[in-house]
Every structure is written in structure tokens, then in C-alpha cells.
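Bench log, entry 3. Co-assembly request; chain sequences pasted below exactly as received.
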Amino acid sequence: MGHGASHAADLGPQNIQLPSFVLGFRNVAIGLGVVGLGAGAAIGFTGAMGTTAHHFWRAYMVAFLLGLSVCLGGLFFVAIQHLTRAGWSVAVRRPAEALASNLRWYWLLFVPFAVLWGMGKANVLWIWADMETLRANNEAEWHIVHAKEAFLNPTFFWIRAVVYFAAWALLAHFFLTNSTRQDESGDRAITERMQKWSGPAIIVFGLTTTFAAFDWIMSLSPAWFSTMFGVYFFCGCATAGFASMILVTVRLQKAGTLKGIVTSEHYQDLGKMLFAFGMVFWAYIAFSQYMLIWYANVPEETGWYLARQVGGWIPVSVALLFGHFVIPFVAVISKWPKRMPLVLAAAAVWMLCAHYIDLYWLVVPEIPHDLSSMATYAQVSEKYADTPTHLGNPVNFLLAIGALALVAAGTITTLSRVALVPKKDPRLADSLAFENM
Amino acid sequence: MATITTNPSDTKTGDAPQSPAKLYGFIAEFETPGDLMAAAEKVRDAGYKWWDCHTPFPVHGLDGAMGIQRTWLPIFVFFAGMTGTIAAFLLQGFTNSWNLTIWAGVWVTGYPYLISGKPAMSLPAFIPVMFELTILFSALSCVGLMFLFNGLPQLYHPLFKSNRFRRASNDRFFISIESRDPNFLPRKTEQFLRSLGPVSVEAVEA
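Structure output for the full assembly:
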């Protein structure tokens, strides 16, 4: 309020439309995506640099989840803004809508997994996909997984996957099309409709991301379970989504758009969101999950953490603690770094890298099969002292960059077709005049 | 339009002659937050130090218009929080210790509990308490120091004498300049305040 009336933001086309030169970046991004995924697949299938099929599919899963979490983070932001009827965020909502809009095609990146199932080799990732082999290899684990077969069976797994992608595509499409339709008409009823459906949308979002995390990450170690796991993945989505929103917004302003529309006030709030979800909330739920399992000390549960406390995984776990929490927490806790776009963008890049390592740490390690034959942690850590992480394998980076580049290309495509700001949103004036205390 | 009353709220009658009332300062009354902001910038630029703005609701950007410096509070709160972290760690370490007796009001001795085979010094188990005490120490010191820095609690204030000032909690916006300000000269300051275009200017007794 106060002197907010003095704001007269420029809503002219050159300020709220994507400059044509950015479309050149889209071609670069598509090229990067094709080359990254193609070269990754080439390395994976030829087994170059010691890459096993086993590692390749895990690396691809990490890359797939990285791009997915960016889009889901955008969807979460859009839905939560409508749910809370937020005024401040209107100026930065369109980038989030554009990120989420990729969910309309992102199922394409899941097709390779369908091919893997079709070839009957799904047990390279999901060992429960071939129960006979599992029984032959590890009878004890088979017993546990067998009891879960009502949920963990191929038919239901694929039905769920279709439901997740359909729900995400539908929600992302709903919010983007309604928002852009309002750009033409300025009809308040559209805002009311989006607010009305944002409640069910958040419920659907929460359930689908939770079960997707169960299906695609947690069930890679099918005997293990954690009720916290869905929240853990959701937290990663929020981290990736806010980091990407910051990067997209900074880039749009650097391209000469959104001048006087997105201000340091909005950056400060995006920074708060990144800080709250990426650092504080992540540390909170990651530690909560760890502490309960550590304290209860039940063998079925501790194995999952044990696998991440041996050999090369020790420095990765420590790096995660400092890279995802301690260092960025201290760096971004103050007001000033959140208000400087380039500093905030650096923090966003940092958090995307930390999020990648987090996903890698979730997906790649494997629980040793012979834990039950060992009495102490010292025995386990000695036997598995040489466990490699393969984190330096280029296939990881090629696939991750490929997935992110395709998300970037999709985002640019969406942004090139719509205004960069919901220009007739009834709360736009609120957002333009927004000031932190 | 502007009126000056030296003692608007004085309802005392028939008292013995008083010594001349000491001046607390002047208040200037404005109708809108915008007027107040413009005036505050001029008071700031005139170099006054002992002055304040009084508004019925938070006015965005007023701290900038008043030239208020960054508070030191976060620095103190940081160290208070760290104190909480360390205190929680020491407390739990000590209570799980053995053969260690210290005097804390009375003589106390550590008593190690064996809980599900965990070592006595188990950092993961300590972290929730360390976290909570960090928050507790930070929050209490933040509120407590905020009160201290602001001179609160303060049950009486000279400005309460002014009837006009009551509207500061309703629909009017005030600037007050105190007589203890080094730049304060009664006539000059009063004229300065009037030059800012207020609805009224009023002297308030100490």
C-alpha cells in the first residue's frame, strides 16, 4: 500500500513478450537435449568407460527425475499461489506455469522405461519386476517383497504411471490455458475458477508425487520402506522448481523483459521460498527420516542408510549435508543475497546441483545383500570400503544435461507463445506494488 | 488550519501555580500515509535524530523515508541461538556422563541411560534438543532484546497527554520531534514542522 500507486509498470509488448533472439536458444537447447540423451544412451549401450546397463539405467532415472522435479516444482508453485489467493506472486507466476507446462509432454521421457519393461529387462532397475530371479538370488528379500505384490506388480505399476502423467498434464494444462485465456479477456471468473480447483489440484499433486516417489525411487530397494519418502521427493521438487523459476526470471530480465514488473521484492520472496524448501525443509525432513531409522535400528530399515555410509558414498553423504543444507543455509539466510538477482541465481544453480546429487544419492546406491551375515558396522564398512559411486562417469552429466535442456526448450516454446506476465490478472496491481516489510 | 495548543489535555483546575511545563516536543498531524512519507523524508534530511513517526498501521517504505539504520538485533540473536545449540549439547552430554559431578545450584552427577544400545554421546539423538534450544534461545532473545532496544515495556509516554494524538491508532499519521534533539529549537522546529504541510502542529509537555 502506501505509495504503491506510483507504480506504472510497462506492459507493452517489448517488455512482456519473449524477444525473438531467445528462440535461437531453444534450438541450442533442443540440440543439447538430443545430443546429451543420445550420447548418454550411446555410452550406456556400448558399455564405454565401464558403464554397465545397471548403472546406465540408474543414471537415466536420475536425469529423468531431475527434469520431472523442475516441472513438478513449477506446478506446485502455481497451485499453491491460487490456493492461498496470493497477490505478490502474480508477476512471477508465468515462468512457473511455463515450467509446469512441460508436464504435457514429459511422459515421453518415461517411454524408455516402457521399452525396458517391454524387453523384459526391467529387473535391471526394479528387481521386483522379476520375482523368480529375486527369489533365486535372495530368498529373504523375496519374502518381504512378495507380501507387497498387491501393490508392486507390473500391471498396477503402469496403471499408476499413466494416472500420474495424466493428472500432471491435465493440471499443468488447466492452469496455463486458463491463465493465458485471462490475458485476453481479463475475466475475474477465471481467477475464481482456478482458485476453486487449486484445492483438489494440491491433493492430487500430493498423492501423485508421493506415489511416484514410492514407485520410481523407493521401490528400487523394494524391501525397504519409509513413510517420509514422498515428502522427501516433494521437497526436492520444490527445491528444483524454485531454483528454476529464479533462473528463468533472471534470464528473462537479462533479455530485456519484465523491467519494472519483477523487482527485488519478488526476488526476495522467491529466495525465501528456495531457502525454506531447499535448505530448511529439506534438512528437517531428511534428518527426521534418518533419525527415526537410526534410533529404531531395525535391520530392514537401516540397510538403506548403511548402503550410503560405505566406501565412496561417505563423502557424497557428507557433501549432501553441507551442499544441500549448511553452506547454502548460511549463504542465503540474510536479506541482501535474496534481493540481488545474480547472487540469487548463483544460489539457484548451486541448489540444482545439490538436488542432482540428492537424487543420485537416492537412486544409485544399492543395499548389500549379505548384511545379515555381518555383526557390526565396522565389518560392513571394511568389506564395502571400495564401493564406487560412478558419480564422475560422463554418462550422468550427459543424461542430466539432456533432460534439463529439453525442459528448457519446452519452457522457451511455451513462453514464446504467451505473455511473460499474467497481464490482466486482477491481482497484478497488488503484485507490482508489492513490498516486503 | 494549523492550531497550536500548549496543553490540550489539561483538565486540572484550581491547582497551585505550577512551574512552567517542560516541553517534550512537537507533534505534526497528517491525513495520509503519502503526506507522512514526504514529510518524514524532509525531517530526516533536516538532520533530526530524536524523532519518530506514528501510524495506525505499518506503512511500507517508511523506514527508508525515516533513514532508519539496520538493526543490530540479528547479530545478537545469532549468538543467542548458538548459545542455545551449545547449551543443549553440553546439557545432554553432561546428563549422559558418568563420574562427573558439577555444581549447578546443587551438586549434580551425570547418569548414563542405555537406550537401544546407543553410545552415551549420540549426536543424532541430541540434534532435536539442540535444534529446539536454538529456536528457543533465538526467539526469546529476539523478543526480549527488541523490547530492551525499544525501551519497552513503557506504561506511560508524554504523547499520551495529547487528545489529538489518540487518532494515531485510528486514522491519522503523526511525526513527533523531541526537545532533546540537538537540532531542536522550539520556534524553529515548530515552523519547520508547519512548513511540511500538516493538518496541525501541537506542542506536548514532558
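The longest strand of chain B covers residues 23-30. The first helix of chain B runs from residue 33 to 45.
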